[in-house]
UniProtKB/TrEMBL annotation:
Gene name of this polypeptide: aroE
Domain Quinate/shikimate 5-dehydrogenase/glutamyl-tRNA reductase: 122-203
Protein's name in the database: Shikimate dehydrogenase (NADP(+))
Organism for this UniProt entry: Paenibacillus provencensis
Active site, UniProt feature: K76 (proton acceptor)
Reactions mediated catalytically: shikimate + NADP(+) = 3-dehydroshikimate + NADPH + H(+)
Classification via Pfam families: SDH_C, Shikimate_DH, Shikimate_dh_N
Length: 286
């Protein structure tokens, strides 16, 4: 990271997030707090964009000299076709969550998985290298996480999913990066017995269905690391039950904060004020 902020023409950084729905996004609160804390002049705005207006919206951002923006549901995949350049993360994952506008060129990144791994390493594990990692779920969120985890060279990465074919397919897509396999969730008992780190990427346990867990807690070994991407609630039943089995637990808030922190650093080339960002997200819950 360079310490100097590259000044835009008007000395003011325009940033935002495009999605639909977007009203309840916590990104504006988090990034505006980050701009303030870092002493950077600018603003981050929520932008409601319908799918049929995606191209016009992206061209508009360029025309209005936005420095960059985040992309959320439902545009993460469709936006690929408007990028001039893709970072390796976005290319592998097949989705973009962060765009940098560099001299009229649109560069697409995916900071979700890398943000997740940075949060896991800051908050729960000293290393992923050599570990047996189990990912539950094989959807869009799992894709980003599997990519970033494999860069850390685990001993094995096993994907478990309700629909076995999706787990197998996801594993096949990432085979070039490491030892990754996909199975049906029915294999949970055998697979989890070997696990050092277990990560839930499904929505099972999310508000309002907070009494559910994606796998039986009986299959989680004592004392391992258990992580959940869900951050509403901050501690899912999977995490609470795992805590009672002496596991180290890790919730989803950190992933949200760090995907934002890495995006902030791509846009502004200054270190993201992670703690101020975390505080802002927590404050926006109340
Ligand atoms: P996301 O982008 O959040 O990953 P997604 O792409 O729709 O969303 O993927 C959802 C994931 O959660 C899938 O792995 C899905 O399993 P299937 O592939 O079998 O559909 C999983 N999932 C969602 N609800 C589930 C439930 N009630 N039980 C088990 N798995 C569930």
């Amino acid at each position: 990271l360079t310490t100097e902020v590259t000044r835009p023409v008007n000395g003011y950084y325009l940033l935002g997030v495009i999605g639909n729905p977007i009203a309840h996004s916590k990104s504006p609160a988090m990034h505006n707090a980050a701009l303030l804390e870092a002493g950077v002049q600018g603003a981050y705005v929520p932008l409601h964009v319908e799918p049929e207006n995606l191209q016009a919206a992206v061209m508009g951002m360029k025309a209005m000299n936005f420095r960059g923006f985040n992309v959320t549901i439902p545009h993460k995949v469709d936006i690929l076709s408007y990028m001039d350049e893709l970072d390796e993360s976005a290319r592998f994952i097949g989705a973009v969550n962060t765009v940098v506008i560099e001299h009229d060129r649109l560069i697409g990144y995916n900071t979700d998985g890398v943000g997740y791994v940075r949060s896991l390493k800051e908050e729960a594990v000293s290393t992923i290298e050599g570990m047996h990692v189990v990912v539950i779920g094989a959807g869009g969120a799992a894709r980003g996480i599997v990519y970033a985890l494999l860069l850390e060279q685990p001993q094995s990465l096993t994907i478990l999913n309700r629909t076995a074919e999706k787990a197998e397919e996801l594993a096949k897509d990432f085979k070039v990066l490491g030892n990754v396999n996909g199975y049906s969730i029915d294999s949970a008992e055998q697979v989890l017995a070997q696990a050092d780190i277990v990560i839930n990427t499904t929505s099972v346990g999310m508000h309002p269905h907070t009494d559910q867990t994606p796998v039986s807690i009986h299959h989680i070994p004592e004392g391992i690391v258990v992580s959940d991407l869900i951050y509403n609630p901050l501690e899912t039943k999977l995490l609470t039950d795992s805590k009672h089995k002496n596991c180290i637990i890790h919730g989803g808030l950190g992933m949200f904060v760090y995907q934002g922190a890495i995006a902030f650093e791509h846009w502004l080339h200054v270190q993201a004020p992670v703690e101020a960002m975390r505080r802002a997200v927590l404050a926006s819950f109340t």
